[in-house]
Amino acid sequence: MIVTNTKTGELEYFNIDPNATQTAGYCGYSQSMLNISFDGGFIKFIFTKKEMVYYISVTEASLTVLSQGFVYNGIKNKQLFSTAVGNSFKCLSKQTVSLANNFQLQVANSQLQAFDIVNNQFGKEEECTLDRNKRLIPATIGFSLSGLIIIILFSCVLYRRNTHSGYSRI
């Protein structure tokens, strides 16, 4: 979690230890909820299913910073991490969700699935856009460089054929 210190205006980062959390929630037909609580706060996700797609519709969090004597609260009603029902959303990259002017949730190395879970296993993984782009950029650069090399070689061949203009071979 990222907060803007109310006294200094500087960003402060708070990592949540997964081994020091408790989870609760419910699973419904068209809506599910996951609440992750820890010493000093909680993170809550509400998942909504519409037809063959589900997504996080509400993200809410609270964090008490004892050193500041301040409680940060935030809620975001925005569609996030849209995925086909039966599949899981997976993202290794950092994704930041702004919950309030001074409070952000940063999620990294995550995998979520809210509906149609079979045998307590994640379904087919759907990669987030950031991870896909990280793989796509090197491939695009490689193809571009290959194309450039082919164009240069083709130009050299044409140049060698046309250098004898004005004279004919005997």
TrEMBL record:
Ranges annotated as spanning the membrane: 136-159
Superkingdom of origin organism: Eukaryota
InterPro entries noted in UniProt: Lamp2-like_luminal, Lysosome-assoc_membr_glycop
Biological processes per GO annotation: establishment of protein localization to organelle
Cellular component, GO annotation: late endosome membrane; lysosomal membrane; plasma membrane
Residues annotated as domain Lysosome-associated membrane glycoprotein 2-like luminal: 6-117
Disulfide bonds: 91-128
Similarity annotation: Belongs to the LAMP family.
Protein's recorded name: Lysosome-associated membrane glycoprotein 3
Naturally occurring in which organism (per UniProt): Crotalus adamanteus (Eastern diamondback rattlesnake)
